Amino acid sequence: MSDGPLIVQSDKTLLLEIDHDQAAECRKAIAPFAELERSPEHVHTYRLTPLGLWNARAAGHDAEQVVDTLLQYSRYAVPHALLVDVAETMARYGRLRLEKHPVHGLVLASNDRPVLEEVLRAKKIAGMLGNRIDDDTVAVHASERGNLKQALLKLGWPAEDFAGYVDGEAHAIALDESEWTLRAYQREAAESFWHGGSGVVVLPCGAGKTLVGAAAMAHAQATTLILVTNTVSARQWKDELVRRTSLTEDEIGEYSGTVKEIRPVTIATYQVMTTKRGGVYRHLELLDARDWGLIVYDEVHLLPAPIFRMTANLQARRRIGLTATLVREDGREGDVFSLIGPKRYDAPWKDIESQGWIAPADCVEVRVTLPTSERLVYATAEPEERYRLASCTHEKVQVVRDLVAQHAGQPTLVIGQYIDQLDELAEKLDAPVIKGETPVKERQRLFEAFRTGEVGLLVVSKVANFSIDLPSAEVAIQVSGSFGSRQEEAQRLGRLLRPKEDGKTAHFYTIVSRDTVDADFAQNRQRFLAEQGYAYRIVDAEDLPA
Amino acid sequence: MSTRDDAGFRSLADQLRSWDDDRLAGLLVARPDLTTPAPHDFGQLASRATVRASLARALDTLTRLELSVLDALVVAGQTTATDVRRIIRAEPAAVDATVARLLDLALVWETRSGLRAVSGAADALGTGPGASGLRPRSAEPLPVREVTRRLAAVSPAARAMLDHVADHGGEATAGAARLTVLPEDAATPAEELVSRRLLVPRAGTTGTVQLPGEVGLALRGGRTTTERVDVVPPLATAERSADLVDRAAAGAAFELVRRVELLLDHWGSHPPGVLRSGGLAVRDLKTVTTLLSVDQPTAALVVETCQAAGLLAGRAGTNGDPVWVPTDAFDTWLDEPPAARWVTLARAWLDSPRLPGLVGTRDEAGKTWNALAPELSSYSMAETRAGTLAALATMPPGTVLAATTGLPSLVEQVAWHRPRRPRSRTQQVAWTMTEAAGLGVTGLDGIASYARRLIGAGDPEPGLAALLPSPVDHVLIQADLTAVAPGPLESALARSLQLVADVESRGGATVYRFTPSSVRRALDVGWTAVELHDFLGKVSRTPVPQPLTYLVDDTVRTFGTIRVGTAESFLRADDEAALSELLHHPKARGLGLRRIAPTVVVSTTPVDVLLPRLRELGAAPVVEAADGTVQVTRPDALRARSPRERGPSVRSVRESARVASVVAAVRSGDRAASARPTAPATPLTPSGALAALREALESGTTVLIGYVDNQGVSSDRVVDPISVEGGSLTARDHRADDVRAFAVHRITTVRPLSGT
Description:
heterodimer, A: alpha/beta, Rossmann fold, 7-stranded parallel sheet, B: alpha+beta, 4-stranded antiparallel sheet
């Protein structure tokens, strides 16, 4: 029996004891093939998934390496079935290859004939293939490259894509590193993406994903289409690109609900891309408007389903996905893998935090007790009303006031889900509010004012969840959320994690009503962060220092 | 007893008679079918040993080399050991050892003029494995030199024809060829061969010629085979650190023990039904796969191993239908350390004839094989397992089977050791490898160091115990409300933790998750908040995180807000005073009244008793509801008796005792036969018999009596009379080697035996 830091469970979870001497070394060794599932303070949990193993295969690791790593670091004997499973799963990747044939164009090739036969007999695939060229090769309709990859993944025989990429229209882009430098991990991320061809880079919020995108563009030296979640974030991308690269404002176009510019670098929102009029997507032609050499997907975990379908047709172009997490609430991780590409880079939050790139956070859950009258209303309310009732209790207003007072002088965000509640809070706190109906101009003005310190307190709705850079925020108070989305919790905390000038700790408060569904949902949401190593403290509202 | 060439015996029976008891016992152990029923004498033993069915069974246990040697003896006819050595393509020492073994098995015996295969051997060998395809030598074989000379003389066409005949069964139809012709007159190659006596007409037939053994031998360079027969096919191996192999295997071993425990624990309270055909339903097996999170073949293996180890058996369930439940042996098993538990399981698997590999596949009739189905076994499976492991054990530590070529080479080697085993062997060896890996006997296709002891001498337990995780006494509690036990917990601690937290992941380590409901569960069985905090503080090696402390306190806060109790009846009145009056009535004391609210009183007295008593006290109650109380009880965990399957050691003791008694019986029977006077004795009257017996008793002589038993069967017995009383003879019966009583009126003859 050795004394390794790793315990391999038969349910394919790996437990890594992080206080162990070899923990760091082991983490590095297993990171390429195991997905970090949670990282609380003592024992991190990784999981072996087919996607993770295929990601590792795509990155050039083989099954024997994986098995040896497990055996080497494992404290106890490793379950045999698991080793067999690892080997079998990894062997499935790359049995089929998508290649460019000098005569027949795109072909599906294999040197494992039974696999090819099995796949050819699958009904879902039949329509995507052309003629059989020889025993080991089948022609593929060029337009089905993405769909085929998606379908093959579902069959459990993911294909390796060697068919290459079009170069796209050349356009000079360089990083302008006169006043700043690319951080080591950003450089590494961009490079591993470039060598891999296409794929996803996983970095925590605030770790500078935009710059990884910019670095990728500098590698590509070609016209680029950037897809982002919303208009505000589109503007931020633009500002950042103008500031950090050789690109000028004239070279960058915005393609959104209000503006429709097509320039060498075009930033489009998911929303405009997925807008339908008369049953058809109106803006699909944007994808073919130029010969794009690179497509950047911001916040891949939010990529809406229609974009997946469009992406299936873009397989000949290089694609980079940027995200804080591969976890998708809708479970479409497989589509990300087959359509955008395997994971090319991943760094755990805590590691980046300890390198000083993101701010440490102090998370506190404050529990308020509903007054008896509200409890009675809550107890007799319809189930679908309960969450709103519990979230919007007036008790929370007082707590928010106390907290704001406690952190007077620090830039503070109050985040909520329900507009009525936000309006009430804004009024009581005498602070501006940003919600869905606030015009983009006004939003930008307020955000700018917040950034400069002109406004010290903002009340925001879920519109601020994503991609809005508020590096100065030090305190966030969450009064309600959308039914326990773990993802949302991560994003909201992300608002705070931009590094502070003096290394100050950020504070993240969640206010929940005790003994209600609000508390249940809150627990769900926290789980994600607790698992990321951010320990929650739970205090009763009465115990808060007044 | 001698094995010299010039010695020899008149018959096989004669040879057997000359053997000492140990050697006889060895024969009976190796060929157990000879002992049932016990043969009367050596003549019968010898004749039984040459019966076709018995020979076939004996041949099934021979190796390729042994079969080839036997075949050579058939080809050679009666011959000398030197000749045998010469015609077999193998090391002379190996041939000698093999001949000795064939002698021990009574497949070959020593005549006055050399070794000879028993008469049925040729038929039994047939054209199966080991048979060279050569015909026996002719009665007066040509000398080797002459055969070689004649072979050299034939024309190329004739030589080609001869080679063809030799390779295709050694027999051919003569067709138009003349069978009596001189070499000079031969017109065709066939006639040429016949004329030179390289092909001879087959006795008793017309138109068929065959290749005499000596010619066949000459064609193959004087040997029965063209390739060596004493070379065991080598295993295709690869290098792999012995340490890794051990750890992979021990991992599987630990998993097996854990799975068996989990499964049987579950079935103790939720037993699955026994199918009418005796198996386990497919649906129930599916449940097992989910419970253990394994695939179906592994689930079948676990279930079958449980049964083989006597930990699982069928018994009548609560509603009378048979169910599969753990046996009481399971409880004993649980008390042992994990390594000992594994040894029990692995040994049971090794000896088991069961075929878990078939579960889920379909039989010829298209019916799916169910796990635990009684007919799911094969007599050769245990032997295949032993043979496979023995072959694996020949690999030195640090080597494992090669990835793709390993299994075929293993099949080949196992086949060399038992060439006559059935067609399904390839499958059985493959199953054995899969099962061995699943059980932790092998890891990474190499045999684990501790598992070598499983087939050889010694105890695998200490070796395995060193590889298994040692129990830990602490957990790591984390802010996401999980606790990780970084190894198997001490059992008391594990039980407590399972109470206060839910198990989320099992394996070498266990992950527990605290939830409000798990904490409540602990409170339900009487833990207090202080006890919970103390417990967590004690078992956690790290500080207990604040959210967990908060969770416990928060759960305690709401615990018991609603109280539930039992009462036989209740009394309700809007008039509080009326209830107060009743409560304070001196005669109401025995009614067990308790006020739980101003207007509600409960009583421990049933309504039908309470009602008349209240009326006696002057109240005028009415019955509001006639609702009884519901009693909830948890059903006991069920256990069946362990099947009375005996371990291999007990079996072997019994077997050797049995063999010894058979040897004694054969010997005495043989004496009875040999001592039998040539002239039939005249039947005696009972009084004559009595007299003769008394005389024998007085003189202390052994007598041969004719006796008619209960079934009317007459037999001869050799007995030493002990007493004659009340019409009954008490005597020691040599055949049974025991004291028996014989009715005097059934004794037909009494003859003293000479020489004793």
